[in-house]
Write a structure and sequence with these properties.
With 304 residues, the chain is of the alpha+beta class. 27% of the residues lie in helices and 23% in strands. The chain has one domain: Double-stranded beta-helix (4-Layer Sandwich). Bound molecules: fe (ii) ion. The site of fe (ii) ion has 4 residues, from loops. Fe (ii) ion binds next to loops.
Length: 304
Amino acid sequence: MTITITPLSTRFGAEISGLDITRPLDLATNAKIRAAQDRWGVTVWRDTGLTDASHVAFSRLFGLVELAPRHQGKPPRFSEPELFDASNIDADGHIIDNAMRRLINAGNRLWHIDSSYMNVRSAQSLLLCHAAPPVPAPTLFADTRSAYDDLPQAMKARIEGLTARHCYFYSRMKAGYPTSEEELDRMPHAQQPLVMEHRASGRRALYLGNHARDIVGMTREDGRALIDELNTWTTQDRYVIEVDYSTGDMSIWDNLCTMHRAGDFDDTAYARDMRRTTIREAGVAAAEDHFTTMFAASKRVAEG
Ligand SMILES: [Fe+2]
């Protein structure tokens, strides 16, 4: 089998074809896939034929596959504990009509980086489409390496060495979820550099998005103005690609050199079944089930 790489723009994103990824691949092919991912940041795979089990198995070529958070009282839809549920349907396949749950999902339509609110970051996310709505429902991706490269020198100097505080529920608050700054203060935060060394490519990348709440050492107002300015810069059309899905299609993005957001579609009218695995950043230790721990801690605050 020959791997075929078709760029989706000059600097960012590529579609990969020619491989059967439902079966184990040889080491040389695995290395080519990882190299393409490191080079292009986003790869798109059409009509993969992957199941839940082979989705998880394929994901392992990128590193340690995280366990998805388990939420008390809400049984998962899948038997694989590594699958994050990125759908708008419940265990019976019905569209979720719970307003609070929908507000939580609405946060995914803001530009973000998966897991930036965790102390241990995620590298790749692998999002597989199990059922697509009959209307466009794409993912939009932004190239945080090129966005950094193109920054004016004065801005590069200004942000060098700065640290942001990221909080999952901050993005939810921005999307309309009813919570207060005081409640957020008591929720878990992670500190992340604004400028990320993307070791896999030797390039540098911005690391922000809408989980970024404050900048350490700056007033809340000044920090948010800077975060907004850099998020707006990064998501200009010239850094953005859009990927839509049919059943079986998969996108893989490297969270250490991209931002993304879910495209807008009527999620009260159409079911969209998307399932995601997530790879932990290489060489970093964390508790095996750290997502469950973080969400449980946030829930305790929310419930007072
Ligand atoms: Fe996401």
